[in-house]
Design a protein that fits this description.
By secondary structure, this protein is mostly helical. The chain is about 80% helix and about 0% strand.
């Protein structure tokens, strides 16, 4: 068979296939539009769940929205499942703000429902999804922590409690990271006084932070560099503060990888203190 004939046959098959697919899509769209415009609530209910089960959330959502807004099942057994599934559609479509609202409203509207606990948990999880990278504003991270805590307060015996605690640990780590990086920025631009203050503040706010060792190391360095670059009147006090920061560090991390470096800072600070005190005695004479 000539190549041209083979090519034409292949092209004709492709065209036929595309036409069949297009025809099928048109038919499916036409059927869906009929369902959407229908006044048959039972049909919409059945089809919305069918679409949902097939993970076709884009089609399930408008049908469920119509059932929710019309209130046709208000006070009936189907109402809970309709509202609950509606909230989940928003979740699966990554519409987390709307999903959070509807999950929380469900838990409030149906507190005795078998879905109530899951709804409140999912509301919190939506807030977790909205929590941004550590470098951005963390308002939504705080919201997520508050919502998870609200869930655990409401359901203290929940099987999801351990999951909530792990998620909260990760959220707190994000807040710790932001606080540490903000403080570390002062160090990098050689604003050692602000760096020391910010790092100490971060440790007070997050006493169990994973950044504790590195923060305390940077505090010693910041205090030392601040003292080294201070006027003679302030050097003595600031070298003494360096010694205190060093002592606090080695008490918690006696085997730290930073120990050798910080010992040199300690020795230099102790030597400077002796020299400054001797100088002060000489001036007094």
């Amino acid at each position: 068979m000539p190549l041209n004939s083979v090519y034409l046959q292949l092209m004709n098959r492709r065209i036929l296939f595309i036409a069949l697919v297009f025809s099928f899509l048109l038919s499916a769209c036409s059927e869906y539009n009929k369902i959407l415009k229908s006044t048959d609530s039972e049909l919409k209910l059945r089809k919305s769940f069918e679409y949902y089960d097939k993970k076709d959330y884009d089609r399930a959502l408008p049908l469920l929205e119509d059932l929710v807004s019309s209130g046709v099942y208000r006070g009936k057994d189907q109402a809970e499942k309709v509202y609950f599934t509606y909230a989940y559609c928003h979740w699966y479509l990554s519409e987390y703000y709307l999903a959070a609202y509807y999950f929380k409203m469900f838990a409030k509207t149906y507190p005795g429902s078998r879905y109530a606990e899951e709804s409140l948990f999912m509301s919190a999880m939506c807030n977790v999804k909205n929590s941004p990278n550590w470098s951005l504003d963390q308002t939504e991270t705080y919201d997520a922590i508050n919502e998870l805590q609200l869930f655990m307060n409401r359901y203290p015996e929940s099987a999801r409690r351990d999951t909530c605690n792990k998620i909260m640990d990760n959220l707190y780590y994000k807040l710790e990271t932001k606080a540490f990086e903000n403080a570390y920025l002062y160090y990098k631009v050689e604003n050692y006084k602000s760096a020391s203050v910010a790092l100490k503040s971060m440790l007070e706010e997050y006493p169990n932070t994973r950044y504790q060792e590195r923060s305390m190391y940077l505090i010693v360095r910041s205090d030392f560099l601040l003292a080294s670059n201070s006027t003679d009147k302030k050097k003595l006090e600031r070298y003494e503060q360096t010694i205190k920061s060093y002592t606090n560090f080695v008490a918690l991390y006696p085997q730290s990888e930073y120990k050798a470096e910080l010992e040199q800072i300690y020795d230099a600070s102790a030597k400077a203190i002796v020299e400054l005190k001797n100088s002060n005695k000489t001036e007094e004479k």
